């Protein structure tokens, strides 16, 4: 592998090799988000790619580059998610046996999806970094070719084809924002984009808990946090040194986003654009929201690099987003324990145009006096302004009410 370097020719050749078996995903205007943010934002929908992530591009590129002997022996990869499914899908399609090492505790649905694509799954370790040496040992023992998710120029070239498509679909893009984990996607994309359009700006986005690339790019300390991140697809402690070098020479800025900002951004993509996205593209949108001055007056492309978010996690995220926007709010009352109080409250809320979702009437706890009760009423409202109006009306009617949002 050492004689192969990541360069524009390799990316163009790779694009020719994989284009017939990958999806030319849409580049669409983000109409609502553009209005909200005051910028011209366009989304590259790699969440519509095979296995719902860009990773299948690099996986296919590597599989096509194998010798016949390597194809016959089979391949192995180490991944908990998108790379695993990309390798499994294309390997099975090409008649190549694949083994995927996934961390112990990987959700059953991820294991099953990978097995459904035809791979043999082996559970080992607590994460990607724990599994790499084990994977290399298995590869050596069984004569398998290790397909690394990012530390491979052919894989990175496959990922770089995203930029070729974007600039072919819209040559007027001024900025492309790319999530960063191990650096393969942004390295390939930056090289391809700068070769096609030298004055284009490339901006990387990382999760604050896994900011190794941002730290090296900005000559700062790494702030690795062992706590889990919503952007698990880019939760890489040790990015590729080769990719770091390409990033330093071809990328203009690398920024980070907090967990709260990533969560809000994933909700924004779903709520405003009706797109299911995982945490990594959420980091990209969060970085845009945090640095709007860099994007004003420019045509901005964001890579929605994957959509494989756990459905239970997504349902919780939606509810939290509705709470954040004030569309679901809990009102807490201290009321006299007399008949008619709840009826009056419900009537006022209904007349204000909101809907009562849940009521908890508490008499037994000691947070209120014996002749009072505490009442929690969860309501659906239009937005936080609507909540403020409802609360003001309730207080005008003499009710002692407080909300989770502090209204």
Overview of the molecule:
The longest helix has 17 residues, at 153-169. The model has no long low-confidence stretch (mean pLDDT 92). The chain has a six-stranded mixed beta sheet, with helices on both faces. A four-stranded parallel beta sheet has the order 5-4-3-6, with helices on both faces. The protein has 407 residues and is an alpha/beta fold. It has helices spanning 8-18, 31-37, 55-64, 68-73, 82-93, 108-116, 128-142, 153-169, 184-196, 212-217, 241-250, 259-273, 279-290, 311-324, 341-351, 384-396; strands at 27-29, 40-45, 75-78, 98-102, 120-123, 145-146, 175-179, 201-207, 253-257, 299-304, 328-336, 355-362, 372-380, 400-403. Strand 3 (75-78), helix 5 and strand 4 form a beta-alpha-beta unit. 44% of the residues lie in helices and 19% in strands.
Key terms for this structure?
single chain; 407 residues; alpha/beta; six-stranded mixed beta sheet; 14 strands; 19% strand
Number of strands: 14
Tally of individual helices: 16
Q: Give Rg in angstroms.
A: 25 Å
Strand content: 15-25%
Tell me roughly what share of residues is in helical segments.
Answer: 40-55%
């Amino acid at each position: 592998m050492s004689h192969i370097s990541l360069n524009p020719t390799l990316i163009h050749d790779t694009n020719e090799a994989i284009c017939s078996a990958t999806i030319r995903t849409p580049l669409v205007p983000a109409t609502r988000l553009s209005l909200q943010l005051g910028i011209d934002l366009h989304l590259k929908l790699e969440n519509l790619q095979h296995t719902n992530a860009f990773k299948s591009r690099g996986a296919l590129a590597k599989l096509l580059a194998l010798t016949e002997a390597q194809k016959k022996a089979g391949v192995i990869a180490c991944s908990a998610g998108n790379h695993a499914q990309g390798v499994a899908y294309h390997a099975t399609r090409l008649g190549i046996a694949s083994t995927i090492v996934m961390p112990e505790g990987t959700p059953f649905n991820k294991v099953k999806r990978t097995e459904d694509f035809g791979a043999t799954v082996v559970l080992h370790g607590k994460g990607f970094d724990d599994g790499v040496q084990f994977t290399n040992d298995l590869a050596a023992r069984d004569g398998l070719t290790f397909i690394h998710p990012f530390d491979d120029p052919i894989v990175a070239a496959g990922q770089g084809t995203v930029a070729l498509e974007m600039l072919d679909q819209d040559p007027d893009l001024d900025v492309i924002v790319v999530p960063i984990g191990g650096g393969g996607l942004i390295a390939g994309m930056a090289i391809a984009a700068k070769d096609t359009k030298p004055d284009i700006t490339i901006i990387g986005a990382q999760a604050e808990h896994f900011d190794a690339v941002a730290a090296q790019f900005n000559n700062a300390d790494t702030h690795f946090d062992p706590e889990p991140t919503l952007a698990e697809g880019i939760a890489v402690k040790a990015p590729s040194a080769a990719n770091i070098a390409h990033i330093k020479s071809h990328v203009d800025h690398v920024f980070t986003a907090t967990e709260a900002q990533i969560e809000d951004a994933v909700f924004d993509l779903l709520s405003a654009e009706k797109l299911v996205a995982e945490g990594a593209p959420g980091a990209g949108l969060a970085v845009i929201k945090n640095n709007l001055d860099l994007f004003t007056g420019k045509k901005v492309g964001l890579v929605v690099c994957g959509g494989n978010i756990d459905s239970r996690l997504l349902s919780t995220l939606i509810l939290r987003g509705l709470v954040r926007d004030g569309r679901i709010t809990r009102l807490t009352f201290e009321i006299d324990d007399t008949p008619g109080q709840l009826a009056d409250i419900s009537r006022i809320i209904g007349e204000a145009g909101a809907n009562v979702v849940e009521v908890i009437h508490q008499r037994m706890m000691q947070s209120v006096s014996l002749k009072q009760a505490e009442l929690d009423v969860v309501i659906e409202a239009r937005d936080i302004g609507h909540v403020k109006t409802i609360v003001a009306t309730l207080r005008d009617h003499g009710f002692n009410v407080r909300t989770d949002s502090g209204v």
